[in-house]
Structures are given as C-alpha cells and as structure tokens.
Amino acid sequence: MPRTWNIGTIFVGGGLLLTLAALAYPAMLGIENTATNSERIIANTSSGPLTEADRDFVIKVRSAGLWEYPLGEMVMERGTTPEMKEAGEHLIVGHAGLDEMCRKIAPELGITLNNQASPQQQQFVATVDSATGREFDSTAVTIMRVTHGQIFPTIAKIRATTRNTLVRQLADLANDTVLDHITVLEKTGLVNHDQVNYQQTNPPKLPKEQVTPPVPQPGSPIVVLKPRPDLDVQTTAPTASPTAAASTSE
C-alpha cells in the first residue's frame, strides 16, 4: 500500500519545516556517514582526484533539478503575479543548465546519476501542487527559499576544497544559479526571513529512505531536463543595482 501523506507531514506548529538533508543522496553512493568519509578519494580522474564529497555534490545538484524544474513549470503556469512567473522561468532555465553539466561530467567522473528526486523532494512538489491562489505562491516560495538557502553552504565548501576541475566548474555554475534563484524568490515579496532562517537551522530528522533518491534501473535512459532558450532568461549571479549600492553606503 502506498504511503499516505497529509499536510501535517509538512507543516508543524503552523510553520513549514524542511530538512537540511533535502538534497542528500548517501545510499546510492554507498556512504553511510558522509561527514566522516567525505574527504576520502574514491577515484583519480583526468580532471583530478574525486572525493566522496565531490560525488555527493554532483548527485545533490542533479536531484535538485529533478524536483525544482517541474516545480518551476508549475509556478510559471499557476503563479498569481508576474514576479512568481519570473521565478518559475529562472528555476527552469537554471536547473536545465546545471543538469546539462551534471550529465556531461558524470560519465567522465564515473558517477551514476539518479532519474528521480527523493521521496521528500517529490512531496515538496505535491505540497505546492495541493495549494491554490496566494497560498500556492507563498508555499512554493517558502519551500524553495529554504532549500536554496540550505544548499548554499555546501556549494561554498565544495568550491573551496575540491581538487577536481570538473566539480569546481559545477560548483561555480551552481553558486551563480542558486544566488540568482534566491534573488528572484525574494523579489516576489513573499519571503518571511524569520521563518526561513528558523527552518534552515532547525530541520526535522527524517528517515534515510525519505531523503534518498531511488537508484535508477540498470539500462534505463537518463532523464533530461529540457533546455528552454525560448524563455530568454539569464541566470548568472546578479549584481546589486547602483541605487541599492548607494543606499547601502549611506
């Protein structure tokens, strides 16, 4: 019998509580404790040594796209404001670009990519899908702002420590993309920073099977997140406007 979900699974005490493990993928990698084994070199590649942390990072980026890309499509269609629809466009374009790089470097690094997001990540999408109107907007923004804030420190650590040039390039692109997404989400005016900060630093503990994407079936075709050049969206890291910079210095 399939597991049933209700809104109480996601909302606790009136607040949306998300887990820092939202993008983790330890089981498929054969890693029981990434905190202690993350620096162990698992392969020497033409682009440099590959650690468990490097491999886990590639999977995290891939997994993020597998739920945020369809969520972006949903937000483009059902968002109630131009700012929401813009956020959806940026999610789609940004994760299509990251996914393209993941699919390009994974074979060179000997990494098997997943074709589905984790059950928890799939539930994020289902939770947003169940809402309507302004509740749809606020629920989508809260979930995405929390998860983007959670992955930011991981990107910085990988960028600072990896010795693999391909992983470093992915971290560069991920840094720009996540910063862009955080910026467009905040432009919606729906980010409650106190709530977001609390949820980022006080995540509930979930069973490993809920935060681990399913292992793909042998020989199954890899899922491709379709590029959308028709959206004409630039997702490089945004810079502060002259007005914002001037007001900050005053």
Describe the protein's architecture and organization.
It is a single chain. This protein has 250 residues and is mainly alpha-helical. Helices cover 59% and strands 5% of the residues. The protein contains 10 helices and 4 strands; from the N terminus they run αββααββααααααα. The strands form 2 sheets. The chain has a two-stranded antiparallel ribbon. A two-stranded antiparallel sheet has the order 3-4. A hairpin with a 2-residue loop joins β3 and β4. It is globular. The chain starts with 6 loop residues before the first helix and ends with a helix. Mean pLDDT is 83; it is low at 1-36 and 240-250.
Short summary:
The chain is mainly alpha-helical and 250 residues long.
Strand order of the largest sheet: 1-2
Number of helices: 10
Order of helices and strands: HEEHHEEHHHHHHH
Distance between the termini: 61 Å
Structural class: mainly alpha
Question: How much strand?
Answer: 5-15%
Mean pLDDT: 83
Kindly state the percentage of residues in helix.
Answer: 55-70%
Low-confidence stretches: 1-36, 240-250
What gyration radius follows from the Cα positions, in whole Å?
18 Å
Q: Biggest sheet: strands, sense, closure? A: 2 strands, antiparallel
Query: Count of DSSP E strands?
Result: 4
Question: What shape does the CA trace take?
Answer: globular
